[in-house]
Amino acid sequence: MPLTPRPVAVLFKAACPDCRARFELAAGALRLAIGASRRTTFYSFTCPECGTAVRKPAGERIVELLTGGGVRTLRLHSTV
Fold first, then answer.
1. Which long-range contacts link 53-60 to residues 24+ away (Cβ below 8 Å)?
2. Can you give the pLDDT at residue 80?
């Protein structure tokens, strides 16, 4: 019986703007929100060092990397 390859855990490098700590986070520690514009598309996480909630803008490349790495994604819909 052939072996099924195990998925490799993806780690993302991140930094906290408050305490300036640099660290790696697993996909489960990040959230991605995709909005109708660049202003409403962002990713967020909680700093493991100081506990600050961090929110950063996510351009096309970041969205591609995070979704490809298994980060949970929330699609924001406009009410227009």
1. 54/14, 54/16, 54/17, 54/18, 58/32, 58/34
2. 55
Q: Tell me the C-alpha distance between 14 and 27, whole Å.
A: 12
Residues 15-28 as b or e (16 or more Cβ within 10 Å = b): ebeeeeeeeebebe
Residue 67 gets the label, from left (phi > 0), alpha (psi -120 to 50) or beta, of: alpha
Q: Residue 58, class by beta-carbon neighbours within 10 Å (0-12 exposed, 13-18 middle, 19+ buried)?
A: buried
Predicted confidence (pLDDT) per residue in 27-60, tens digit: 999 999 999 888 899 999 999 999 999 999 999 9
